[in-house]
Amino acid sequence: MVENGNQSRRDVLKGTAGIGMIGLAGCLGGDGDSVDMTVGSSSSGSSTYGNSQAIQRVVSQESDSINFITQDAGGDPQSIRLFADDELNSYSAGNYILNQALEQTGPFEEPDDVSEFPQHGFGHLSLNLYWMALEDSDIETTDDLPGRDIYALPAGWGLRAMTEEMYGNAGLWEDLEEGVVNFETSEAASALEEGRVEAFVTYSSNYDQLPSWAVEIDSRADVRAIEMTDDYIEAAEDFGGAGYEEVDEIGGWDQDVQGGDFPKHTWTETYPYLFSSEIPADAVYELMDICHEHYQSMQDANPTILDWDDPDNFTFALTHTDEIPVHPGAADWYEDHDVWDDSWTRGDE
């Protein structure tokens, strides 16, 4: 059944407006009004938030037709809920947490499920997650983590839920959980500097950039990677909710964090932007054009921004395409740049 074009796991459902009914200030066309894209972007300090701010800055310089508005939602699950509650008209979410929302698992189990979803836009972020410890700690491998004070990212983040489920499935989380210390990323550097935690999960964005909170750790605390042992490697390899990748080295850090001559095992997540069907196709198309043509200016503001000169770099995070269609504006852009995949579904306007 079709109701205004947005997609759910059961039906194609209605689109939404933005925050407090201001998501669409107008539509592109004769009256000259601009379109507001109010974009849920995890939380301040995250890589998603940094990317959105960089896009917002350049869009404000290059367009009189669209306003890209970065919204601190407090995490991916909150972005999904805010959209379903008509408080946002766009968001970025990791594919792990998006899958939970579609499948009504984790934080989206009934009665906390959502039924309204936006349409696919384009990918903007890939994360490689890994374990690190204080340089002077005696923690050498992940086998040393149980019973120690550790930081596993904020409790409200999709990345935290993904990590918990990954290790929970392997029977490892119960031993880790006893030592987990919860706080926001803004406290991470001081917590390590003061020795309140000895080890932590962090990530590099698009292989060689750090989120702002990890940059602060880099400047205030001596840290190093620790080796993932077989049980932890198998947990990542066997987990269907995330990717697994072995990299040559941990990227993005100014200090030497390699921690020794051992393989760097990571678990991975990818992130698309998604847009309400009520956002005009022309607006999404123009946004993608700006990203394609001015990505270097965005990189000046935030080096995590992808090289969007290559149209293929817009498509890598489009998953769940059987359940979530591609926004008409994005579909037009992909077709015009010869990267449309015939297995995708074009969304209704």
Give a quick summary of the entry:
This protein has helices at residues 47-62, 76-84, 95-103, 158-169, 173-177, 188-193, 212-220, 230-238, 281-301, 328-336; strands at 6-7, 12-13, 35-40, 66-71, 90-92, 119-134, 150-151, 199-205, 223-225, 243-247, 264-275. The chain has 349 residues and is α/β, with parallel strands linked by helices. Helix 1 (47-62) packs across helix 9 and helix 9 (281-301) packs across helix 10.
What features would you describe in this structure?
It comes from Natronorubrum texcoconense. Pfam families: NMT1_3. InterPro entries: TRAP_TAXI (IPR011852). This is TRAP transporter solute receptor, TAXI family. This protein is of the alpha/beta class and 349 residues long. The protein has 2 domains: 6-125 and 270-336, D-Maltodextrin-Binding Protein, domain 2, CATH 3.40.190; 126-269, D-Maltodextrin-Binding Protein, domain 2 (3-Layer(aba) Sandwich). The protein is 30% helix and 18% strand. The chain has 10 helices and 11 strands. Strands 3, 4, 5, 6, 7, 8, 9, 10 and 11 form a 9-stranded mixed β-sheet that branches. Strand 1 (6-7) and strand 2 (12-13) form a beta hairpin. Helix 1 (47-62) crosses helix 9 (281-301) and helix 9 (281-301) packs across helix 10 (328-336). It is globular and about 60 Å long.
Task: Please outline the major beta sheet.
Answer: 9 strands, mixed
Oligomer: single chain
Global Rg = 20 Å
Strand percentage = 15-25%
Please name the fourth-level CATH homologous superfamily of the largest domain. Answer: Periplasmic binding protein-like II
Question: Which geometry do the CA atoms define?
Answer: globular
Number of domains: 2
* DSSP helix fraction: 25-40%
| Distance between the amino and carboxyl termini | 14 Å
The average pLDDT is 90
The name of the CATH topology of the largest domain is D-Maltodextrin-Binding Protein, domain 2
In the CATH scheme, the class of the largest domain would be Alpha Beta
| Separate helix tally | 10
| CATH architectural label of the largest domain | 3-Layer(aba) Sandwich
Order of helices and strands: EEEHEHEHEEHHHEHEHEEHH
Low-confidence stretches: 1-31
- Which structural class is indicated by helix and strand composition? alpha/beta
Instruction: Say how many strands there are.
Output: 11
